[in-house]
Structure formats: structure tokens, C-alpha cells
Amino acid sequence: MKLANKVVVVTGGAGGIGGAFCKLAAANGAKVVVADLDFAAAQKLAEEINGLGVQCDVSVEANILSLIDQAESAYGPIDLFMSNAGFGVGEPSHAASASNDVWQRNWDVHLMAHVYAARALLPSMIARGDGYFLNVASAAGLLSQVGDAAYTVTKHAAVAFAESLAISHGDDGIKVSVLCPQYVNTNILALSDEQRTEPLKGVLTPEYCAEVILDGIDKEQFHILPHPEVKDYITHRASNVDRWLSGMRRLRASLLDESGKVDFVKMLKG
């Protein structure tokens, strides 16, 4: 898909990967709707790119419906919906130690937000034989994230839902891509200002990810992998799961701090 004159909606669009893609989409001629929980930030970016800013809590289906209504009222039918909003908080201790509220929030933001958007948009997209869902998951959705089971599980669910969309509706003219980066220098890493300025192994900029996304949707690829090595990791995992799990256990052990919690900065510093 080429973005010129297309209507593009991006959740979590005020910053990070979403913000970078909003800017790039606008630069490529798209009509962009910047949706974010932070309304002021969404409006600010929308003004910069001559788009529309909308407040949206993606965990609430009514908010998604309102977002779609506002976007279509302003610009017409949505061509590309990028479900990008996400977060990560880690787990207090063991793999099941996160609270029910944290698990539910992960479920609502990382999976149900994608479902709500598809539920609202699929009928009209199918009717016109065209439309594109760009669902942001994570390499954790293809592999695993040490120290955050709720994040990993719901990102796996996001990848599976994207696969279901592609299988069920590819022949209806619906395009689907799922973005699965590893580490990107955004707020989700919870790095300090000082750490953000240090060289960090394998950490990409949001702007680079946006360029990879643009190339991926131009080619209409299902997997968009800003870290190409993830493809090799998937192969290694599938070829010998026991060996892969053993390696992941060693990785986790190497990242534990004195309190027994995973310190991601250790991995990023290589």
C-alpha cells in the first residue's frame, strides 16, 4: 500500500514508534489521525503534521468506536489502522506474580484493542474489498520476554489474532501486517535520560522503525521485523524448543540483579 491520500489512524500515536510513523505517513501524503491517551500530546503532534488529534483509551471499546467515527467524519473511510498502543511493567517476582489488574490491562491493551478495531472496521472494509490492519506486537510475541509473562502472553495473542485476520480475510482484500521489534528507544523501556544517551546493544530508534514499517506495508508483508535477526531466532526456537528454553533460562539468570529481578539494561549494554 502506498500512503499518498490514504486515511491512516495510529493509536499510541503521540510518541515513540507511533509518533514517528505518524510523521512519516504525513510526509508521504497520508491524512493522519493521531490517537493517544494523552490528548494534549496527540493534539500537539497532529498540529505539526496537519492531522487530527483524538484522545483514546484503547482498552475501552467505546473509545475505539468514537475514534473511528471522528476519523471517518473528518477524512472518510479508514484505509490503514495501526493498533500501536502498548506498555510494559514487568513482574514483581515469579512468572505469575503480576496482579490481576496488570494482567487484565495487558490483555485489554495488547489484544482486545486490536479486536475492537477489527470488529468495527471489518464490515465496511470487506464491503469495499480493501483495508489494512497494522497491528503492533513485539518480538516477544514470536519468542518470549524474560521478566514479563503478561506482556509475552498477550503479545503472542496479538500475533495470533493478526494471523486470524489474514487467514480469514485476505481473500476479501484485507491486508494485515504485524510489527514485531525487539528493543526500541521509547518510554516502554523506562530508561533514564542518561541511559538513553548511552550506546545500547540492539536498541533501534523509533524513526528507523517507522522507515521499516513504511517499507513493510509498501510490500504488504505480514511479519515486519525491524530487527532482522528475529527471523533466525524463530527458526532456532522451532527447530529445538528444549535447547531454546535452556538458552533463555541462561539469559534470564545473567540479567538478574541483587534483588532477583530482571535488569534489562544489563542486556542492552551487552
Tally of strands: 7
Distance between the termini: 37 Å
* CATH homology superfamily: NAD(P)-binding Rossmann-like Domain
Oligomeric state of shown chains: single chain
Write down the secondary-structure element order.
EHEHEHEHEHEHHEHHH
Low-confidence stretches: none
The largest sheet, given as strand count, sense and whether it forms a barrel, is: 7 strands, parallel
Strand order of the largest sheet: 3-2-1-4-5-6-7
- Please tell me the total number of domains: 1
CATH architecture tag? 3-Layer(aba) Sandwich
What fold name stands as the CATH topology? Rossmann fold
Rounded radius of gyration (Å): 18 Å
Write down the CATH class: Alpha Beta
How much β-strand is present in the residues? 5-15%
Shape: globular
With helices defined by DSSP (H or I, 4 residues minimum), what is the helix count? Answer: 10
Mean pLDDT rating: 94
Question: What is the share of helical residues?
Answer: 40-55%
Give the helix/strand class: alpha/beta
Protein architecture, described:
It is built from 10 helices and 7 strands. The protein has a 7-stranded parallel beta sheet, with helices on both faces. Helix 1 packs across helix 7, helix 3 packs parallel to helix 4 and helix 8 crosses helix 9.
Short note summarizing the structure:
This protein has helices at residues 16-27, 39-49, 61-75, 100-128, 149-169, 193-196, 206-219, 229-239, 241-255, 264-268, and strands spanning 7-11, 31-36, 52-55, 80-83, 131-136, 174-179, 223-224.
